[in-house]
UniProtKB/TrEMBL annotation:
Cited InterPro entries: Aldolase_TIM, DapA-like
Organism name: Streptomyces sindenensis
Matching PANTHER family: 5-DEHYDRO-4-DEOXYGLUCARATE DEHYDRATASE 2-RELATED, DIHYDRODIPICOLINATE SYNTHASE
CDD domains: DHDPS-like (cd00408)
Name this polypeptide is given: Dihydrodipicolinate synthase family protein
Family: Belongs to the DapA family.
Domain of life: Bacteria
SUPFAM superfamilies: Aldolase
Length: 300
């Protein structure tokens, strides 16, 4: 298969949408559709339902399938859909197969959560998923700094649909080395730690970055992408300075507030309830005020 169109789609702002909840705690279907349309209307061209900002690990399998289906329906003809899958191998394979039936183009494989991960076992895990959906592009989500680049290359040798990487180790030098050991031109490299890391990762080989902030301000994220594509790091860092505190709030306490800050901002804008599911939490009052101040300065 020719995966070049999917590779081109990955080299972009990869939006990680939130999952809005209704007052009774269920997924708010109408609001999910509205938030997805807002992203698309804002210029987003690739979306990842069931990502971490979408509270993947707090959703039931039925809810994960619902989120996938809603996103594919809204994105049809407007954006590429990259579905997050994970958990045990049978669950991840079933989710990937569902994504294919639903009409998604790619799957992102969440970092395995088991505490004992061998590098060869990492290959086996991803191979099982990739072989189950040979027609889909497969994007491993890498957060393990100990994984060697040649292991990714070995995976792609047997699974040519492994076409990109969401790299989320907070070390630009490590990323640069890993990408070159795996094959810089062989894969699409997506900076998996969002806008604050995007400039340094672009400088060492990335051509796309993930974003949760894009839920709140699509134009801001796209402004950074435009600057990075042009090699204008001065302009990119101007955007970086605007959003720095917002992203720092999300990163507090080992990213405990990653989702809650985004949902709080959407709540301030009247677009989404602030509620999240355990093990996340609603922001304390003083942080809510700071989030409101941050987005007010963006003149949305």
């Amino acid at each position: 298969m020719d995966f070049s169109p999917l590779k081109a789609a990955l080299a972009d702002v990869v939006a990680i949408p939130v999952t809005p909840f209704a007052e009774d705690g269920s997924i708010d279907v109408a609001n999910h559709r509205a938030l997805t349309r807002r992203l698309l209307d804002g210029g987003v061209r690739i979306v990842t339902p069931n990502g971490n900002t979408g509270e993947f690990y707090a959703l039931t399998p039925d809810e994960q399938r619902l989120v996938t289906e809603l996103t594919v329906e809204e994105a049809a003809g407007r954006a590429t859909v990259l579905v997050g899958v994970g958990h045990d191998v049978p669950a991840a394979v079933a989710a990937a197969e569902h994504a294919a039936r639903a009409g998604a183009a790619m799957v992102m494989v969440h970092q395995p959560v088991h505490p004992y991960v061998a590098q060869e076992g990492w290959i086996d895990y991803h191979r099982a998923i990739a072989e189950a959906v040979p027609e889909l592009g497969v994007v491993p989500y890498i957060r393990n700094p100990l994984l060697a680049g040649d292991r990714l290359a070995a995976l792609a040798d047997s699974c040519p649909n492994v076409i990109g990487v969401k790299y989320a180790v907070p070390d630009a030098a490590r990323f640069g080395a890993f990408a070159r050991d795996a094959g810089l031109e062989r894969f699409v490299w997506v900076a998996g730690l969002a806008e604050l890391y995007a400039p340094s990762y672009f400088a060492t080989g990335a051509t796309g970055f993930t974003s949760g902030l894009v839920n709140v301000a699509p134009a801001v994220s796209l402004d950074m992408l435009e600057a990075l594509r042009a090699g204008d790091y001065v302009a990119a860092m101007k955007v970086w300075e605007r959003i720095r505190r917002f992203e720092e709030l999300r990163a507090e306490e080992q990213s405990a507030n990653n989702v809650t800050v985004v949902k709080e901002a959407l709540s301030v804008l009247g677009l989404c309830r602030r509620e999240v599911r355990a093990p996340s939490r609603v922001l304390p009052e003083e942080r809510r005020t700071e989030v409101a101040e941050q987005i007010a300065a963006w003149a949305l």
